[in-house]
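DATA SHEET
Item: assembly model
Revision: 1
Owner: S.N.
Input lines:
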Amino acid sequence: MYDTLLFLHLLAAFLLAVTVVTYTAVALGAPASGRTLFVADRCWDVGGLGTLVLGIWLALHLDEYDFFDGWILGAIVLWMAATGLGVRARIGAEDVSAERAPLMHWLRTVAIVGLLVLMIWKPGA
Amino acid sequence: MTVLAAIRPDDWNLPLLLHVLGAMTLVGSLVLVALSLASARSGGSRAGDDAGGSAAGLRLGYRALLLGAIPAWIVMRAGAQWIASKEGLDDLDEPPAWVDIGFMTSEPTLLLLIAATVCAGVAARRAREGGRAFGGLNTAALVLVAITLAAYVLAIWAMSTKPS
């Protein structure tokens, strides 16, 4: 059970990376097709939901962790921030007049790296 | 293994971060490559005609391989070696199966990545020059990237479930 949950949780996290890398290319000026952006956005939808649901499931499944551990609550806050920033980056990618879209993307990237740091260091666990 | 995963010495964390960050960037780059090359095959582009769309897709695929996937592979592999050394896994005569799977999927796929980069680069140049066929090279790069991605899904499974 734990192994399957962890595998799916990691797979979901890798889907988030697809979105971050694709939007990084766009932020650096690459001409991504509409289909590429569509797939990147769906990866964010599935990966975001997957990391959250499976992450909470893992926290509840393991005796070593508690849902109210600081690092888990911090990860949820970062997840929410990344999702909010992602929505603004997505709107910006569709509307070239949105000048702050690249900034939203870079802030989302920082949030995702922060999430990864929390998942690995697990401060307070 | 669950307890081992939960309680890890702090000095393993930095190499693990590098390894996972490299792996995530690698897979993200490869999916972008696959999407761009597939888009080039169908000539789709947000701005431009079919020929322009193909050239732009090929160029993006080539650059994502050269500037994204290959450097990410190096970071992933260096992180893997670093943490294997920290854990003493590289000293074992018979390392666990998940370590073997990691090595077996990472090292041959570098060759596939290099081959895909060459194919995509030549195809991108031909598309830019116009009039020369590049569809076969594009397809070859796409197939190589697809094989590599399949290998990495296997590696992610092995790293997370750690079969003995």
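QC remark: Residues 68 and 87 of chain B are 28 Å apart (CA to CA).
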